[in-house]
Amino acid sequence: MKIAELNVPESVKDVLQTHGICELFPPQEECIRAGVLDGRNILLASPTASGKTLIAELCALRHVLEGGKVIYLCPLRALASEKFEEFKKYTNIRKNNGDKVSVGISTGDFDTADNWLARCDVIITTNEKADALLRHRANWMEYISAVITDEVHLLNEAARGPTLEIVLARLMQSKPDIQILALSATIGNVEEIAGWLNAKPVVTNWRPINLKEGVILQDEIQYRNGERRRIEQETRLPVINLVLNTLRNGGQALIFASTRKNAVSAAKQVAIHMDKIFVPKTGSKIVKKGLQEQAMGILEKEANRILEAGERTPMGDELADLVRWGVAYHHAGLSGAQRTIIEQAFKDRKIKVLTATPTLAWGVNLPARIVIIQDYRRFEVGLGNYPIPVLDYKQMAGRAGRPKYDKTGESIIVAKTTDELEYLMENYILAKPERIWSRLAVEKIIRFHVLATIASDYAHTKEDVYEFFRKTFYAYQYDVRAIQNVIDKILRFLHDEEMIYVIGEDIQATKLGKRISELYIDPLSGIIIRDALQTKPPLLVEFSLLQLIAHTPDMGPIMRPYQREMEQLADTAKNHSQELFLEIPNQRNDQIGYADFLGEVKTAMVLNNWIEELSEEKLLERFNVQPGDLYRTIENAKWLLHAVEKLSPVVAAKNKDVTNLSNELIERVAKGIKRELLPIVALEGVGRARGRIIFNAGFQTPEDLKQASFKDLVALPSVGPRLAKKIKEQVGGYDKKDDEEEDLSIIKSTNQEPQQKELFEF
């Protein structure tokens, strides 16, 4: 089917054809024939790169141009940002009223209805943000006529699945006529999920690039169709040999490792052998004049970007060294800026080999010619090593094959023995993905959503609560009666903790319960904060609140102490006992509780050192906390400090000092600064490092900066003319006569060297 044949406005066809899209892929055509543009609910299960996003775009634009709004659900912020960029190509299309199509993205700050989104036609959010918006009963949501949910198979994922399930159930409850378009690459029980969503399943195995799946043992790959292929043994490691073979043929390689440590180790192993690519054998056909110099120059530029992305750390230095050889690793320990640089460099084919933990398979789209799974086991605390699900394997394998660059993609698992080869072939290559199950039936999760159901006025009786949960995937697979006893127990708990009150059959949320629900925290976190704030410590300091929020379940994984740290942490806790909201557990009577407490103390110490401006390098050295883990802890701390700030006046009016301290701490934790820098870093473009430089130079207030000369600011390290102008404009001290000085400074600082070609091929 040609794009020109579609029953969509010409303006939409023009955009698609401008981007080189003139004909539909088979799965896309099947969706059109199934009624996706006629308002029918569709569940599309189709491999990676088969065109699911285009169907989402066509469906969304159909609603927007007919006067509706669309909400697009993503499991991750990075994926939401990717979809936002893809939808922006339609923002020059005009609607019937003459306004242009507007696309918005909202993924943070759960304690708001984001009323500005009323101006947007396509709203892209994470599942959690959508849940928060539903709790706040955002007025604009009544105009939502379609929901598109990406990666719907994540219903099966314990951490994120229940939120997606609740959001879809809530939308089906509040808007029975809403169109649902659910997208997935891999689903075992398509009919069952489609039945829950009242959707027509569209299932296809079509891929624009053929996928060859196989297992390698030593130097031979055995494929699922019985075909065999030998790989030249340049080293004793099959993974390295596969990588070298792929690079020599112009491809890229993506290696999945089971842990962060293994991902780093694999990247280092590959880098050791990259000289075989950059300095190839004499007479090789891939040698081109100036290739080595060009490639090295481009990679040096990317390495410098890594070094400039935030503070200098040993991890950043290590990553930059690898990037210089066209190799990188990707895991949650990296900062967001580092991950973004690595992802883009891989997409641009500058980085040739990327090693990653399995979470990358669920995130942004990073295809490679070959996907190598070097370990099919995964380690989790309490579970040990266990084989990954087939579903996870299929997600990783689906990354093989680069559209526009490859005719075939390969997914290869590494086997160590003949028996293991047979096991991998039978249990992964030839296996079907497992059935997807609801993960809702956990008391902590149900508690979170029962309170929200009542506090947001979606239910006012026990039967109303049951009725809502009947709309969940869990109830569709089992029966809501299976969790009614749990719901009853939770209702009693919420009543006893004064989050709801009951008059006859009527159930309403108290002011406390409603606020806890709006803040998007676990009711148990709310209780911990409420109880703590009723009896303040003798000394209220920053550490008091940091340890309190570290004690809540919403902080997420606390920073577990190493054995060598236990004694020091115990001494710290004892020395700070007068500052703690909570009593120190008795080590003899509660060893597990005491160990958890020391982990909370460590987490609070990391945050406390962060706001005292300890560098990331020193934090890594002192606490062994990686940048990605640090920033996730910072994000959770900001959210929980906001909860403390908003709950403290609800608990008691006399908590003004707690309210003020938590408000201040939100800013200090966000920026990693001492109190004295608050006025300086409030200026756009000034972070903790620049703020300290400016402060130490004697410019300690906005008034000081207003009086400062433009020349003096430009002379400060890492400021420069553009930032100096921005600072002066913000404090009201920029004079037009400074324009000549700015222009001169920019000319002096501009590198006039010609830019290198951005892409290179081996």
Structural notes for this entry:
The chain is of the alpha/beta class. It has five domains: 3-203, P-loop containing nucleotide triphosphate hydrolases (Rossmann fold, 3-Layer(aba) Sandwich), CATH 3.40.50.300; 210-429, Rossmann fold; 443-504, no CATH class; 523-672, Sec63 N-terminal domain-like fold (Orthogonal Bundle); 678-749, DNA polymerase, domain 1, CATH 1.10.150.20. Helices cover 47% and strands 12% of the residues. An eight-stranded mixed beta sheet has the order 10-9-8-17-14-11-13-12, sandwiched between helices. Strand 12 (327-330), helix 13 and strand 13 form a beta-alpha-beta unit. The longest helix is centred in the C-terminal third of the chain and has 25 residues, at 627-651. The protein is globular, with a radius of gyration of 28 Å. The model is unreliable at 282-290 and 746-762 (pLDDT under 50).
The whole-number mean of residue pLDDT values reads: 90
Strands of the widest sheet, in order across it, are: 10-9-8-17-14-11-13-12
| CATH H-level homologous superfamily name of the largest domain | P-loop containing nucleotide triphosphate hydrolases
Based on CA inertia axes, which overall geometry fits?
globular
Under the CATH scheme, the architecture of the largest domain is 3-Layer(aba) Sandwich
User: How is the CATH topology of the largest domain named?
Assistant: Rossmann fold
Please report the distance between the alpha carbons of the first and last residues: 37 Å
Number of strands: 19
